[in-house]
UniProtKB/TrEMBL annotation:
Protein name: D-inositol 3-phosphate glycosyltransferase
Single GO term (MF): glycosyltransferase activity
PANTHER family in UniProt: SULFOQUINOVOSYL TRANSFERASE SQD2
Record organism: Serinicoccus hydrothermalis
Recorded superkingdom: Bacteria
């Protein structure tokens, strides 16, 4: 089949990935190509090329000076994304060589305009409800061709969070277990992810210090103010906490594999928790907070999760569990990731969704592309 994968254009789909959403989109496209499907990807122009993938690059927005001077002119990045997705959806409405559109974008237009297409759209929910996307799904659900939009969610928790808007079939995220390979472990702890308040790496620093173990932090600094005020003061203290930077996948996998345990310290309800799946694939057990979809990723035999509480209680209880977590069998963690969180399992699950959606959809005519294609 020919699948158009729609990415979120705020960040390029390139390594090192800005976050789990970008990683999942990239691996899904690669996995579909490996299974012989034709894949087109709509993504930021700075995305890494994937062999066998056709790219639909968004045109650059050229606004007149008069429009820019208008008092209603929104933030430029918002306007560029609006232009990009509107252009894409109008383009897809003219095409007759596509079988299915699969959007991972957080933007509302691919969902709101799904009924305008002659083929089904699968929307994957990667976040808790947001106002723009909630509105778009509600509007699409009242359209004459509302059966064109089908929804999945990355965890049972995420599906439940959206239940008041739409039912969603659960397809959990996956990691490439050929990239995230078993490591020997080591004496220290590791934390990985975007450095932002909702990920709360400063709590990981407090846990490591309380437990008396070194901690290495890796990931992109997405909030400079937070990092400066809450995280950097912990780094360099007696060598206990260090920052490794935003590492490519291979280097990050080696770091995680050489660590005794991964700390996952969300200050919000994680829709999934991809970093935990990556660590388990390396044989590294996980110690985290039981929020959002994380309990669906980390089972009792491969990690420990602390129930929600105030920060001081979370730190105290997590630090007390460190000796138990670092003794968990690494082979069991690896086996759990291969069985439940692999990229291959994710791709096969999505193909099952595609088959069901296409089986229920009316046929559409095949033929050449009508009208100009998006610039490639």
């Amino acid at each position: 089949m020919h699948v158009v994968v729609v990415a979120h254009t705020r960040h390029p789909i390139s390594q090192p990935f800005a976050g789990g959403l970008e990683s999942v989109t990239w691996h899904l496209a690669r996995g579909l190509v490996a299974r012989g499907h034709r894949v087109s990807v709509f993504a930021d122009r700075h995305s890494d090329p994937i062999p066998g993938v056709d790219y639909l690059w968004p045109d650059r927005l050229e606004l007149s000076e008069a429009a820019r001077r208008d008092v209603s002119m929104p933030e430029e990045g918002w306007m560029e994304r609006h232009h990009a997705y509107l252009q894409l959806m109008l383009h897809l409405a003219r095409r007759t060589d596509v079988d299915l559109v699969h959007t991972h974008a957080l933007h509302h237009l691919p969902a709101a305009m799904a009924p305008t297409l002659s083929v089904p759209t699968v929307l994957t929910l990667h976040t808790p409800p947001t106002p723009w996307l909630e509105s778009a799904i509600a509007i699409a659900g009242t359209a004459p061709r509302r059966d064109r939009l089908h929804v999945t969610a990355v965890s049972r928790w995420t599906a439940a969070a959206w239940h008041h808007v739409t039912p969603a079939r659960v397809v959990r995220n996956g990691v490439d277990v050929r990239e995230w390979t078993p490591g020997p472990g080591g004496p220290g702890l590791v934390w990985s992810g975007r450095i932002v308040p909702e990920k709360a790496p400063h709590l990981a620093a407090r846990i490591a210090r309380r437990a008396g173990l070194p901690l290495t932090i890796a990931g992109p600094v997405s909030d400079e103010d937070y990092a400066r005020e809450m995280l950097w003061p912990w780094c360099g203290r007696d060598g206990g906490v260090s920052y490794a930077g935003h590492l490519p996948t291979a280097e990050l996998a080696r770091l995680v594999g050489r660590s005794a345990a991964l700390l996952v310290t969300p200050a919000w309800d994680e829709p999934f928790g991809l970093v935990a799946a990556e660590a388990l694939a390396c044989g590294t057990p996980v110690l985290g907070f039981a929020r959002g979809g994380l309990p669906e990723v980390v089972g009792p035999g491969v990690g420990r999760l602390v129930p929600p509480a105030d920060d001081a209680t979370l730190v105290e209880q997590a630090a007390a569990l460190v000796p138990d977590v670092v003794r968990l069998p690494r082979a069991r963690a690896r086996a759990h990731a291969v069985a439940h969180h692999s990229m291959d399992r994710m791709v096969e699950d999505y193909l099952g969704v595609y088959d069901d959606v296409l089986a229920a959809a009316p046929p559409h005519p095949l033929g050449p592309v009508v009208g100009p294609a998006v610039a490639s």
